[in-house]
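Help needed: design a sequence for this.
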C-alpha cells in the first residue's frame, strides 16, 4: 500500500505544479476526474499505461525521472495480506487497511465502541454479530481474524521513532464502558485488556470522563500521519457501508483541533485509575 500512497501523492504534486485540473488529467487516461482523485489518494490500483500517460501530460519526459515512478506503479499491484479475506473485507475498506499499516501514527477518537485495534476477541465477535446479524459463524470468525491480524501488525508492534512514542493513540468516551453490551464477563475482560494496553509502550490510551462536559467531537474519527513528507495527513471517517477520506489541510486542521481538545479534557494519569474503578464496579 505504501507504493500506492507514494505514487498517488507524487502524481498529485506533479499535476498541481503544472496547473492541470483533475478533469483534464482524467481525459488523458480515458477516465473521470473522480478516478484521478482516487488515484492521488492511493485508493485504487494503478495501470502502468495510465501512469505513463499522466507523466507525459505532466511533462515528465526524462527516462531517468519516469523509471522510478513507473516502478512504483508496478509495485502497487503486489498482493496484500487482506486479499485472502476478500469475502469479508469490502473494497472501500482496503484503502484504509493499507493506510493503517503505512501510517507512522494513528490518533483515533471513539464515541460508541472500543476501537477495533483494542478489542478482545469476544468483544469483537459481539460487535461483528451486531453489525452483521445474518453472518454465519465462519464469516464471523474470519472477520475476527482480520481484526486480530491488524492488532498484531499495528497495535502490538514495537513503538517507532527509537521506541519512545506509541504508534496508536486512542481516546475513548467513558460512556462506552458503561453501556450494557452482552454480558459482564465479556466487559470485565475488555476493560482488563484496556488496562494492559494502557501500560503498553505501543499504545497511548486516554478515557474522556463523563464529567468532562461538552466537547466538539460529533462522531468517531481517525487521524493518520505518515513519515514520508510527500504523503498528506488523512482523516478517516467510517460509515456503516462506506467511508470518507479527508486530506484537505483545512479539514485536517479542524479534526486535529478537535483531537487536541478531547485529549486536553482527558488526563492520562487518571486513565488506569478510572479503568480499575470501572472494573471493580462491574
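Sure. Designed sequence:
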Amino acid at each position: 500500500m505504501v507504493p500506492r500512497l507514494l505514487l498517488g501523492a507524487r502524481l498529485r504534486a506533479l499535476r498541481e505544479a503544472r496547473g492541470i485540473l483533475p478533469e483534464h488529467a482524467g481525459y488523458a487516461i480515458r477516465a473521470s476526474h473522480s478516478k484521478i482523485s482516487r488515484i492521488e489518494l492511493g485508493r485504487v490500483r494503478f495501470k502502468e499505461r495510465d501512469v505513463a500517460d499522466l507523466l507525459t501530460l505532466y511533462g515528465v519526459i526524462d527516462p531517468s525521472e519516469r523509471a522510478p515512478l513507473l516502478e512504483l506503479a508496478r509495485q502497487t499491484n503486489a498482493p496484500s495480506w487482506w486479499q485472502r479475506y476478500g469475502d469479508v473485507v469490502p473494497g472501500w475498506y482496503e484503502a484504509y487497511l493499507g493506510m493503517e499499516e503505512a501510517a507512522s501514527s494513528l490518533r483515533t477518537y471513539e464515541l460508541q465502541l472500543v476501537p477495533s485495534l483494542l478489542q478482545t476477541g469476544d468483544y469483537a465477535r459481539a460487535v461483528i454479530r451486531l453489525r452483521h446479524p445474518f453472518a454465519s459463524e465462519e464469516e464471523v470468525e474470519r472477520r475476527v481474524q482480520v481484526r486480530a491480524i491488524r492488532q498484531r501488525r499495528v497495535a502490538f508492534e514495537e513503538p517507532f521513532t527509537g521506541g519512545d512514542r506509541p504508534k496508536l493513540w486512542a481516546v475513548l468516551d467513558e460512556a462506552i464502558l458503561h453501556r450494557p453490551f452482552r454480558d459482564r464477563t465479556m466487559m470485565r475482560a475488555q476493560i482488563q485488556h484496556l488496562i494492559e494496553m494502557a501500560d503498553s509502550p505501543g499504545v497511548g490510551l486516554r478515557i474522556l470522563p463523563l464529567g468532562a462536559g461538552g466537547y466538539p467531537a460529533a462522531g468517531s474519527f481517525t487521524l493518520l500521519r505518515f513519515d514520508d513528507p510527500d504523503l498528506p495527513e488523512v482523516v478517516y471517517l467510517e460509515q456503516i457501508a462506506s467511508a470518507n477520506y479527508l486530506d484537505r489541510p483545512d479539514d485536517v486542521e479542524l479534526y486535529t483541533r478537535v483531537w487536541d481538545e478531547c485529549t486536553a479534557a482527558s488526563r492520562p494519569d487518571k486513565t488506569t485509575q478510572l479503568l480499575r474503578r470501572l472494573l471493580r464496579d462491574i
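The chain has two domains: 2-75, 83-281.
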